[in-house]
Design a protein that fits this description.
Structural class: alpha+beta
CATH class of the domain at 62-199: Alpha Beta
Number of strands: 8
Largest sheet: 8 strands, mixed
Distance between the termini: 10 Å
CATH topology of the domain at 62-199: Aminopeptidase
Radius of gyration: 16 Å
Number of helices: 6
CATH architecture of the domain at 62-199: 3-Layer(aba) Sandwich
Order of helices and strands: EHEEHEHEHEEEHH
C-alpha cells in the first residue's frame, strides 16, 4: 500500500538520502556536500513543506513546496533564474505562491511507467490538498521537461513554461512552469470530473 503524506522534521534523512541518490550520484547535477555525506540538503529545506509517498518505511516519491519568504526567496530568483524569460522574471509573483522542486519518483524494482506516473500523481494530489488548506493561489514548479507533458496531458494540470529549458550534460532538459490554482480547478472540471473528485478525496485512500 502506498501512503502519501507530509514528511516530519525527524524524518528528514529519508528525503535527504533519496535526493543524494538521485541528484548527486545518479544525475551529477548537485555537488556532494562533505559536511553531510550521503545526503543532499540546501538552504531552502527549513522553509519548505516536504511531501512524500511511502511504501512501508521506504520513501519512493518526493517533492517539496516552498512558500515565498524574503529569505530565502525562491530558487527561481537565484539558482534557477536562467529558466525564466525576462518577462517571467520581472512578473514573478510572491504572495500566496509556492515553488515546487526536487521532484523524484523512485518506484520499487520491476515497476513500469504506469506505476511511476501513479506515484507522481499521488504527490501532486497531496500538494493540491495542502494548497487548498493553506490558501495557496498559484504554483511555480521546476522539473524535468518530460514531467511537464505528464502534468498537462495525463493529470490535466495546465502548467505553462516560463522560459527556455536548461540542458544538462546527460541530455536531460529541465524547465520552470506556472499555474494558477483557479486554472487547475477549471481544467479538471472541464476535462475530467472524475479526476476532480479524486483530487478532493482523502489522499491516503
Amino acid at each position: 500500500m502506498f501512503v502519501a503524506r507530509l514528511i516530519a522534521a525527524d524524518e528528514a534523512s529519508a528525503y535527504e538520502t533519496l535526493r543524494n541518490e538521485y541528484f548527486v550520484v545518479r544525475k551529477g547535477w548537485v555537488d556532494a556536500d562533505p559536511s553531510h555525506p550521503g545526503r543532499e540538503t540546501d538552504r531552502y529545506d527549513s522553509s519548505c513543506h516536504h511531501l512524500g509517498v511511502f511504501q512501508g518505511p521506504h520513501l519512493i516519491a518526493y517533492l517539496r513546496a516552498l512558500p515565498w519568504q524574503p529569505i530565502p526567496g525562491f530558487m527561481l530568483e537565484h539558482e534557477f533564474r536562467d529558466l525564466l524569460s525576462e518577462d517571467a522574471a520581472q512578473g514573478l509573483r510572491q504572495k500566496g505562491v509556492v515553488e515546487i522542486s526536487r521532484l523524484i519518483v523512485a518506484p520499487p524494482a520491476g515497476s513500469g511507467r504506469k506505476e511511476t506516473v501513479a506515484l507522481a500523481e499521488l504527490l501532486f494530489k497531496l500538494v493540491y490538498g495542502l494548497g487548498t488548506q493553506l490558501g495557496w493561489t498559484a504554483y511555480y514548479i521546476v522539473l524535468e521537461e518530460a514531467w511537464l507533458r505528464v502534468l498537462n496531458h495525463r493529470f490535466h494540470l495546465p502548467f505553462v513554461p516560463m522560459g527556455a529549458p536548461r540542458v544538462y550534460p546527460d541530455g536531460t532538459r529541465t524547465l520552470a512552469a506556472f499555474a494558477r490554482c483557479e486554472a487547475l480547478e477549471q481544467s479538471m472540471l472541464e476535462t475530467s470530473p472524475d479526476k476532480y473528485r479524486w483530487y478532493h478525496q482523502d489522499v491516503t485512500k
